[in-house]
Amino acid sequence: MRRRLTVALVVVMSVAALLPRGAAAQDTTYYVGALVGVGTLSGDPSSVVTTEGFAFSTFKPETGPAVNVIVGAHLRDYVTVQANYISNRNDLALFSALVVDGASRFYEQPRTSAQHALVGDVFVYFRKRTSRIRPYLSTGIGVVRLRTARGSAPIDGGFPAPAPGFSSTDLILRSAVGIDVPVGRRWNIRYSFSEHIGPNPISAQLDPPGTRAMMNFQNLVGVFVGF
Length: 227
Fold this sequence. Notes:
elongated, eight-stranded antiparallel β-barrel
């Protein structure tokens, strides 16, 4: 995770050196827009096995709605910077079980979760600004706030369940691929497939705790308008 954040910082600093100055700055155009779609979180199973028994935990995320509000600037034909507000909601099911000497304890706990992120991205396009189809790659860093709360009544099998509600704030790395399609002088349609990765506060609540980072995959489509 640290290596990926370092790479993203190097990219951002390199692009900063490309920012237009003087007459070139007059070619900069700005845009605002919004994309909607679905977001899916990655699960994280974990297990511990000993001669006396075993423990197992996991959480199952469901696909939920996602939205991405964007404000950006096309600096040059092939370079764009963009600020993002990203939000998605997902239902979860947390599960842990402990089996020792033939006796078992477990729980299953339905939960709701919401993530709200602020991210700065750098885009690299593969075609000029005047092209009819413009594929791109992007990467950026940001901050995400996650909140999760218990949903419907859990199944209680005698194993201690996580707290009814908890939250966290973490750094994330975001990468995306997509395509822009102009549909007028100022309007554009955008499709984006993105992933952001960061610490996993949900896995930290499980027993045994998970060890993988959390990944948030989003399929989004929307429009933006230049000015």
